[in-house]
Amino acid sequence: MTRTHLQEPPVPEPLSIGILYPTTWYGDPTGFDAAIQRLRGLDPTIEVRVVEYQEPPERRHRRQIGAADDALDETPPVSDEVADVLATAEILLAIDLPTDIVSRAPRLRWVQSASAGADHLLRLGLDRAGIRLTTGAGSNAVGIAEFVMGRLLEFWKDFPVIAERQAIRTWRPRYGRELAGSTIGLIGLGAINSQIAARLAAFDVQVLATRRSWSPGATAPNVDEVLPADRLHEMLIRCDAVIAAVRGTTSTEGLMNAKAFAAMSPGSWFCNVGRGTLVDEPALVAALTSGQLGGAAIDVQRHEPMADDDPLWDAPNLRLSFHNATAPTAMFRHLHTMFEANVVNYLVGAPMTNEANLPHAP
Fold first, then answer.
1. Edge-to-edge strand order for the sheet containing 241-244?
2. Which helix (H) or strand (E) element contains residue 155?
3. pLDDT tens, the chain, 362 aa long
4. Which of 113, 260, 292, 344 is 20 to 30 A from residue 156's alpha carbon, by CA?
5. Please, is 304 exposed, middle or buried when counting C-beta atoms within 10 Å of its C-beta (0-12, 13-18, 19+)?
6. Residues 361, 341, 57, 82: is their CA dihedral positive or negative?
7. Parallel, antiparallel, or unpaired: how do β-strands 293-298 and 318-320 relate?
8. Residue 93 belongs to what H/E stretch?
9. Which three-class secondary structure state does DSSP give residue 262?
10. What is the dihedral of CA 21, 337, 150, 315, to 10 degrees?
11. Neighbours of 203 (CB within 10 A)
12. Residue 110 burial (CB < 10 Å; 0-12/13-18/19+)?
């Protein structure tokens, strides 16, 4: 009697995921390890490899703003370990990628950006190679919204002057204003400004917003009035404070210029936590110097890092921060939660959150 040998089922191809961002940014080694284990547990075919690839922040910034620079097309050094991960990866979670990523990663089908802005990755030709790209938009929205609220209250309550008087031991009361009853304008109504609107709801203020995707009758949670983007100046003149959180695009380039600042209420406050290209920086300095603006806070600049002689350093009543409005330890927890959900959707062919491009066939 001949024994029949049953054919073994084919072994499924491994799904290789590469984690490229500096893992110290997660801020919690135990939490990071748990996040990696959750990824591995999503499907038995998943393999996760962790290796660091990071480009200098100034290079990333120049690519984000579309700077004309031949050096941005050069491929920076890539270690053998990183090259090995790229050669087999189907999915990458990264802050940066080598310029020649398409040729280095022949199996790559999807990139999850660790940042909300992914223009620096979009410029690498991912869509032409049929590689999908999702962003981390929303993962840092709560942290940035809290930062903006701190800056807003700092201005309204005049905390810097109070601190100065403490430093020189001068007992001289300085009284701030009541925020309730004021009008706050939001340029853009994405994840960040939506979280800011939610926090403003507790302060009994009127909230206006411009939105690029406006349609008649448009409404939004915690916003009293939504206007189309082309009615920006109409909104500016009605506001005591204006907060911008929009992507850097050709339509937002230099949007806050001399005419825009002149349209704002005298003595009002401006804040930008989106992209530095939104602001005509000499016009901002002029508006602060003349007193047309009572104060401003910007977390993003056109040139990062700023030069030592940049006029922004000495602009009156300007609070500078250095692209650090987010809270990284919370942001990366949120990012991995989003990424895990996207991996599940990727496996079953469902739409993914924050898809930034529509790939062409390779």
1. 225-228, 206-211, 183-187, 241-244, 268-272, 293-298, 318-320
2. helix 141-157
3. 444 445 555 556 899 999 999 999 999 999 999 999 999 999 999 999 999 999 888 888 787 777 766 656 777 789 999 999 999 999 999 999 999 999 999 999 999 999 988 888 988 999 999 999 999 999 999 999 999 999 999 999 999 999 999 999 999 999 999 999 999 999 999 999 999 999 999 999 999 999 999 999 999 999 999 999 999 999 999 999 999 999 888 899 999 999 999 999 999 999 999 999 999 999 999 999 999 999 999 999 999 999 999 999 999 999 999 999 999 889 999 999 999 999 999 999 999 999 987 554 33
4. 260
5. middle
6. negative
7. parallel
8. strand 91-94
9. helix
10. 30
11. 17
12. buried
Please report how the helices 328-348 and 141-157 are oriented relative to each other, as an axis angle in degrees rounded to 10.
150
* CA–CA gap between residue 149 and residue 157 (Å, rounded): 12
Tokens of 171: 């007992």
- Ramachandran region, residue 186 (left: φ > 0; alpha: ψ -120 to 50; beta: rest): beta
User: 248, 354, 330, 286: which is closest to 25 by C-alpha?
Assistant: 330
Which residue reads 């949120």 in tokens?
334
Please give the radius of gyration of the chain, using alpha carbons only, rounded to the nearest integer.
Answer: 24
Q: How far apart are CA 67 and CA 277, in angstroms?
A: 11
- Let me know: does 354 contact 137? Beta carbons within 8 Å: yes
